[in-house]
């Protein structure tokens, strides 16, 4: 029998301090994002609600879109902005999909549940003008959000929910109860009850969707555990799931597959 115990939950969920050159990697993102926006057809800062950050960017392929691909950024629900992440639409756009990158308000100004509701509003609005299947992906906290939207308690409108085909959370977080033991919760402001009600691993998935939970093999053990957890539980609830640990990838480069339409990540997502 193998015994497991985590005593330092802050370290368990700390990425930047445990990845070499993480500051350099992150500092490059807004540069690459700005360059992508200059080169790609799309509409920026479309308002979908009254909040300051309730805006989305929609990037378009040259041809009629095959469907809508959604990328939700991370930042532990309390940092970063959509303008840092635009370039991660590149691979899906080149594969012929319209790509939605929603912004959202951050904790502690709003709750995690309110953030999830905001992202759903952005998808509900953008999807009205894009036909075809809808594929959801998100990184870290964004992975949590897209998983939440794939449950039977989704905030997506019925006709939009019916178009969901594949959910690909990347380095996602699906059981939020461990965050009650972290400094991150100073902004997240989770309680015992809200940690449970905001955990997609404790909810039922929509019966018609497919889930691929994707994580880097070199990530913190908690991200590996959370990745396996959602695929295991939702498989037991009757949907097709897969848990992938991409070799030699960590938290800040596992999303690089979104840059290349021929990557393993995007080929899996769009299959």
UniProtKB/TrEMBL annotation:
<protein>
    <submittedName>
        <fullName>Alpha/beta hydrolase</fullName>
    </submittedName>
</protein>
<feature type="domain" description="Alpha/beta hydrolase fold-3">
    <location>
        <begin position="69"/>
        <end position="180"/>
    </location>
</feature>
<dbReference type="InterPro" id="IPR013094">
    <property type="entry name" value="AB_hydrolase_3"/>
</dbReference>
<dbReference type="InterPro" id="IPR050300">
    <property type="entry name" value="GDXG_lipolytic_enzyme"/>
</dbReference>
<dbReference type="Pfam" id="PF07859">
    <property type="entry name" value="Abhydrolase_3"/>
</dbReference>
<dbReference type="GO" id="GO:0016787">
    <property type="term" value="F:hydrolase activity"/>
</dbReference>
<dbReference type="InterPro" id="IPR029058">
    <property type="entry name" value="AB_hydrolase_fold"/>
</dbReference>
<keyword id="KW-0378">Hydrolase</keyword>
């Amino acid at each position: 029998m193998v015994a497991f115990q985590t005593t330092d939950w802050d370290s368990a969920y700390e990425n930047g301090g445990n990845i070499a050159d993480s500051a350099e990697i992150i500092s490059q993102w807004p540069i690459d994002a700005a360059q992508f926006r200059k080169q790609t057809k799309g509409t920026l800062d479309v308002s979908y609600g009254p909040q300051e950050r309730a805006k989305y960017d929609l990037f378009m392929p040259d041809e009629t879109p095959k469907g809508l691909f959604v990328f939700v950024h991370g930042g532990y629900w309390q940092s970063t902005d959509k303008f840092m992440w635009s370039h991660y639409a590149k691979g899906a756009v080149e594969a012929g999909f319209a790509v939605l990158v929603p912004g959202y308000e951050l904790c502690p100004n709003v709750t995690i549940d309110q953030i999830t509701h905001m992202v759903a509003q952005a998808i509900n609005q953008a999807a009205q003008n894009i036909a075809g299947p809808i594929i959801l992906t998100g990184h870290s906290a964004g992975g949590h959000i897209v998983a939440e939207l794939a449950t039977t308690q989704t905030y997506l409108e019925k006709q939009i929910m019916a178009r969901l085909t594949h959910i690909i959370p990347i380095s996602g977080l699906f059981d939020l109860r461990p965050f009650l033991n972290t400094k991150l919760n100073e902004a997240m402001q989770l309680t015992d009850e809200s940690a449970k009600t905001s955990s997609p691993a404790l909810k039922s998935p929509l019966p018609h969707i497919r889930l691929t939970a994707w994580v880097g093999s070199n990530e913190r053990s908690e991200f590996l555990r959370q990745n396996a957890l959602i695929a295991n539980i939702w498989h037991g609830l009757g949907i097709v799931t897969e848990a992938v640990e991409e070799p030699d990838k960590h938290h800040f480069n596992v999303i690089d597959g979104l840059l290349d339409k021929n990557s393993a990540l995007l080929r899996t997502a769009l299959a």
